Every structure is written in C-alpha cells, then in structure tokens.
C-alpha cells in the first residue's frame, strides 16, 4: 500500500461566517459567505474585496462572456452578476428543486448545479444543466446529496462528491450536456462525507471531508495520495490557485448542522503548497 503524504496548512484569512465555493479567477480567490450574504475575492497578499451582496450565496462560476453565476443554499435560485457586481438576472427554479448548492461552469459555458429535491419526507439529489435563460434540465437523479463538482482534465468527465454516499462519482458528459450513468471514481469509506472538491492537472481530486477534519487528494480507483488534517471545524471546500496554480486554499467552517441552520458559524481559509497545479476546475 502506498503511504499517504501529510501536508501542513497555514493560516490565510479569518473573519468569515460560513465560507463556501472557492474558485481561482482573474488572479484572485473568489468565494461565497452565504450567511453574511456576500461574494468575496481576495488576492494572494490577503487584500479582501466584497464583489456581490447576495443572500445565501453558495456556488460560483463564470460564463464565457464573463457573467458571474451564483447559486444559493436553502433556496432554489440562480443569479447572474455583471462585472460591476450588479445582479442582472435572477431565476427561481423551485419547480425542479427545494434548494441548490454547488455550481460548476465548464469552459464551454455548460453549467451544472446541485439539486436537492423534496421527495415526500426525504430529500433526494440530482444534477441540473442550466440553460442561458436560467431554465434547468435535470440530467442526473437519485443521488445521495450531491455536492462538489469538477471536470477532469479530459474535459468530458464530471466528478461529483456524493456526501451521504461517502464517495466520488464520475459521469461522462455528452455534447449536449447530458450525463451518462455514474461510475465510482473513489470510495472514501463510511466515516468520510465529501463536500467541496477541485481537480488538478494530473487528474487527482482534492476533496474536503467536512465532518472528518481532513482534506484528501484521491485518484481514480480510490487511492489517497495526500492528506491535510485541520485542528478544528468542518473541512468544507478546497481550490487550487495562486500565481503558479500550486497553492491549495482550504475553506474551513466552525459550526454544526444545527448551527448552520440557525446562522451560527465562524469561518476561515487556510493555505498549503502542493506539487501538482490546478486546471481551473471548478
């Protein structure tokens, strides 16, 4: 068995409420703080800026024309935001979901979003394909809380963290955005519940196991190659960025399930240096 390499993380940014959705874009790290109702960006030197004021903001992505797309948590909404930080369009998609969560815009503009669907007394999960007009077509169903989304370097495989399934799934993406039947990219074991993820240039996936206080790098088949443990809080979501793509930013939130619903949380971002750069997904 190959040994797992441990990596230490260092502090980067404090003072968040509930951080989510980190993305490297335009030489800055963008992320959401849904409980604070904001989308932020921050440079490598720590210079923080409020980019958008938006309640329940969760996932982020950019269309080819530069439009920022923001999904929400605890509401089924998608928003378009212009370069000035103004919301130019909002879409209510409650006809297909109770809530959205993470969001991924592929390089060609195809946009995928987590869907949490009320099914009687339970919540099932799906993935939606978002049209330019905000309409959503459900392209995957029956998932156990889909969460982080990323495209592998082949450009045609969508990786999804299935939080309650304790695994990462892989879907072949068709030319029209349809998804094939899922295969298992990695089984993480019953004690790990994957949250946000990002993809590196070698096809490895960094994923936060939120309630297990660790970020892992896993490869197809399930081998864990690297691990970053944290001293407290939820390991929510990673993003690769920085000037050379080798800085791994780690969003950590100190909360509980009850606290999150009540708006009680304290968030921060850590950073670590890694050997394989990112590929801009998500």
Automatic annotation (TrEMBL):
Q: Which InterPro entries does the record associate with it? A: 6-blade_b-propeller_TolB-like, SGL, SMP-30, SMP-30/CGR1_Lactonase
All residue ranges annotated as the SMP-30/Gluconolactonase/LRE-like region domain in the record: 19-250
Do you know which SUPFAM superfamilies this protein is assigned to?
Answer: Calcium-dependent phosphotriesterase
Taxonomically, the superkingdom here is: Bacteria
Query: What is the name listed in the Swiss-Prot or TrEMBL entry for this protein?
Result: Gluconolaconase
